[in-house]
Amino acid sequence: MKTSFLKFASIFSIAFLLYACSTVPIIGRKQLALVDDNEIQAQAAVAYNNFLGAAETKVITGTNDATMVKNVGHKIASAVNTFLRENNVADQYDFNWEFNLIQSDEVNAWCMPGGKVAVYTGILPLTYNESGLATVMGHEIAHAIARHSMEQMSNQYAAQALGAAIGASTSKSKWGGLINSAYGLGGQVALLSYSRKNESEADRLGLIFMAMAGYEPSEAVTFWQRMASAKSSANNPPEFLSSHPSDQKRVNDLKKLLPEAQKYYRK
Questions:
Q1: pLDDT computed for residue 248 by the predictor
Q2: Nearest-CA neighbor of 125 among 1, 249, 238, 259?
Q3: Please, which residues have CB within 8 angstroms of residue 38's CB and are 6 or more apart in sequence?
Q4: Do residues 129 and 71 touch, judged by C-beta distance below 8 A?
Q5: Average pLDDT, the chain
Q6: What pTM did the predictor assign?
Q7: Where do the structural domains in the chain lie, given as residue ranges?
Q8: Can you give the pLDDT at residue 128?
Q9: Which of 98, 140, 199, 201 is catalytic?
């Protein structure tokens, strides 16, 4: 009896996992979607506000750099909205965009689900100009558009669900636990590490987004070459590269993606 129940639970679990999928826009890849995207965005908004309000977080406002971050961010957000409409998936996204420059020596930037973006001052010397900044912001925003956070949390959840009866392991409270562990609800934001597949997708979509926003996509190659040099010359890799493959293969892959991105740029 117990064996039959476990077999049934396993079959039901596999069927459930196969059914619960979404598709990455343009890429066309199916991804696991077991965590509610609306809940992720709500939790991310809380975490982002807590991060901005934390005593150790200094948000820069009123400077040329702060203005540049917001301007580049809004240009890319506008391009993303156009991209989503053109691909008939705009109704699947309800982002409330925010762009802030954070005073920190960390070479870092990130975008939470729902369009909550932070750029650290430590990365600006490497972005060098607006195009470099657009490369970074386009790449990080691409992770959010491709729902890579949802996918990574779904993978964690699936590992838990397959080890227990489905009825006991699909509660929303466990979704909240995964979200909280991924993003934290204090001043320190613990972001998920993405897979190489996720990074490649973010590179491709990021190129398209920056091109649609009016930035020459070939500037992305130059930026990642600067990042690779920074990584090789530093005792510790920049935080921005801690989970990002930054090597010659990435640069070569970006070069192969340029013809597609150039079509969006010329439009």
A1: 79
A2: 238
A3: none
A4: no
A5: 80
A6: 0.81
A7: 37-148+187-266
A8: 95
A9: 140
Q: What is the pLDDT of residue 36?
A: 76
Can you tell me the distance from the alpha carbon of 7 to that of 50, in angstroms, rounded to the nearest whole number?
Answer: 44
- What is the C-alpha separation between 200 and 64, in angstroms, rounded? 31
pLDDT of residue 212: 98
For residue range 215-245, list pLDDT tens digits in order. 999 999 999 999 888 876 665 556 555 555 5
**151 catalytic, yes or no?**
no
Specify the pLDDT at position 86: 95
Closest CA to 257 of 242, 24, 249: 249
* Identity of the amino acid at 263: K
Three-class secondary structure assignment of the chain: CHHHHHHHHHHHHHHHHHHCEEECCCCCCEEECCCCHHHHHHHHHHHHHHHHHCCCCCEECCCHHHHHHHHHHHHHHHHHHHHHHHCCCHHHCCCCCEEEEECCCCCCEEEECCCEEEEEHHHHHHHCCHHHHHHHHHHHHHHHHCCHHHHHHHHHHHHHHCCCCHHHHCCHHHHHHHHHHHHCCCCCCCCCCCCHHHHHHHHHHHHHHHHHCCCCCCHHHHHHHHHHHHHHHCCCCCHHHCCCCCCHHHHHHHHHHHHHHHHHHHC
